[in-house]
Design goal:
Elements lengths: L6 H4 L3 H19 L3 H9 L21 H6 L13 E7 L7 E6 H18 L6 E4 L7 H12 L3 E3 L6 H11 L3 E4 L1 H10 L15 E5 L5 H11 L2 E8 L4 E7 L6 E3 L4 E6 L13 E7 L10 E7 L1 E2 L11 E2 L4 E2 L4 E3 L2 E3 L1 H9 L4 E12 L2 E10 L11 H16 L3 E6 L14 E3 L4
The protein binds 5'-O-[hydroxy(phenylacetyl)phosphoryl]adenosine.
5'-O-[hydroxy(phenylacetyl)phosphoryl]adenosine binds next to helix 6, strand 7, strand 8 and strand 12.
């Protein structure tokens, strides 16, 4: 059986792979110059397309951060005529402003091919039935996987997230063999199916699970594989780099292959920003090599991992990263949704009845993430009749839900209860155990 969807590209010798990377990097820098943001940024750094003569020259290019994307919102990083853009996706920003990504038809085709390549690598074929249990919308987990799965010729069920009863019904009626699911929801589902007359999760007949969008451990993978009797594959990605399938686990299960014909990957020391060697743990930095609408150069993902360029036993030559080991910033992932503490602060500080202190607590209820926020009431309002407190609590919960897309349980506390000396980092208490 053929193991590769694109055997030529997937097994290229490193020197040939690097040749493609260099050509594409040069093109990417040229394209980046078409955007308002990079024209200014590269000009200031005195980097011109002709300065990129070897792959090593990428080091001359300054890094790009999420904050840069926020500042360039909405169109500052657009590198083509808006007419050529056929879709946008977005991800949470560090405050109220999201980060937006523009895609041309070429960009979506290239991404679709990477998803198809990844799913094929895991063993999925056109006879499989693929139930996509990730949210459809601006989030990339829905549409991103959808088109790649269709490209392989699978029957795709765009189930989106939530509603366990319907998910189970779809699996049973259409004999789903592959799911795209967050690991926390998969764990929950393993217990919950009992309530829908499924005695054993294995009875569902699932063969594959694609799991990503949030960090999880090897032990969680094993537990899910055991419970459902399937093979689970780790899928990594971020909206800024299209979304899922930037890197994907192969059957050798010894890391995730970064599709290096589409992304240039580096590992840096998050403090000194020095580029680190294979095997050294640091922050993953990615450059798009095949994107027209919005090229991004040396994007600091803030995800911590290690990288190896050694050829894999599966025969693929594309570098492998280890599963994500943590974050170099304070971003939280709650049920697959990214939330920055600063976004919560932003919402709270807009409400006059809220005092200056708050505390974020992350817990597990069963296998699901729960967000609790203790909010101090503003002293000025804390006198006499306090019957409006319930209304305030509901108002804050509503505002948080609308800003974060995550349900928060708000607990109002008297002024002075939360210690004011608390440093920024301690505003978050994460009681979850991955
Ligand atoms: O989560 C894209 C995605 C969708 C990946 C579906 C996989 C499956 P964002 O919402 O922009 O995009 O969040 C990106 O999520 O920087 C990581 O911190 C985290 N993340 C994504 N995949 C994994 C994974 C999507 N497999 C951020 N393991 C990234 C650990 C992951 N963390």
């Amino acid at each position: 059986m053929n193991m590769y969807l694109n055997s030529e590209l997937e097994t290229l010798e490193r020197k040939d792979l690097e040749k493609i990377q260099l050509e594409r990097l040069q093109k990417t820098v040229l394209r980046a110059y078409e955007s308002e943001f990079y024209r200014a940024r590269l000009h200031r750094a005195n980097v011109h397309p002709e300065d990129i003569q070897s792959i090593e020259d990428i080091k001359k290019i300054p890094f790009t951060t999420k904050d840069d994307l926020r500042k360039a919102y909405p169109y500052g990083m657009l590198a083509v005529d808006k007419k050529q853009i056929i879709r946008i996706h977005a991800s949470s920003g560090t405050t109220g402003t999201p980060t937006v990504i523009f895609h041309t038809r070429h960009d979506l085709d290239a991404w679709t091919e990477l998803v198809a390549r990844s799913l094929y690598m895991a063993g999925m074929r056109d006879s499989d039935v693929f139930q996509n249990m990730m949210t459809y919308g601006l989030f990339t987990g829905g549409l991103g996987l959808h088109y790649g799965a269709e490209q392989l010729g699978m029957m795709v069920i765009p189930a989106s997230s939530g509603n366990t009863r319907r998910q189970v019904q779809l699996m049973q009626d259409f004999h789903t063999t592959a799911v795209h699911i967050t690991p926390s929801y998969a764990l929950h589902l393993g217990d919950d199916v009992e309530n829908y007359n499924v005695k054993d999760p294995r009875d569902l007949g699932l063969k594959f699970a694609v799991m990503g969008a949030e960090p999880y451990s090897e032990a969680v993978t094993r537990k899910i594989e055991e419970r459902f009797g399937l093979a689970a594959f780790n899928c990594y990605g971020l909206s800024e780099m299209n979304g899922p399938a930037v890197a994907f686990e192969c059957p050798a299960k010894n890391g995730l292959h970064v599709w290096e014909d589409n992304y240039f990957a580096e590992i840096i020391d998050p403090v000194s920003t020095e580029v680190l060697g294979d095997g050294q743990k640091g922050e993953l930095v990615l450059t798009t090599l095949n994107r027209e609408g919005m090229p991004i150069l040396r994007y600091r993902t803030k995800d911590l991992t290690t990288m190896s360029r050694e050829k894999c036993s599966c025969g693929r030559t594309h570098a492998r990263i280890e599963r994500i080991l943590g974050r170099a910033d304070d971003m939280m992932i709650i049920g697959g949704v990214n939330v920055f503490p600063s976004q919560i602060e932003h919402v709270l500080m807009e409400i006059p009845e809220v005092g200056s202190n708050y505390q974020i607590i992350l817990r597990k209820k069963g296998y699901l993430d729960k967000l609790h926020v203790n909010v101090e009431i503003n002293e000025k309002f804390f006198a006499g009749d306090i019957s409006w407190l319930h209304t305030l609590q509901k108002k804050i919960e509503k505002e948080l839900k609308s800003a974060l897309l995550v349900t928060a349980t708000v607990n109002l506390v008297e002024p002075g209860v939360i210690p004011p000396s608390m440093g920024k980092a301690q505003r978050v208490v994460d009681e979850r155990n991955l």
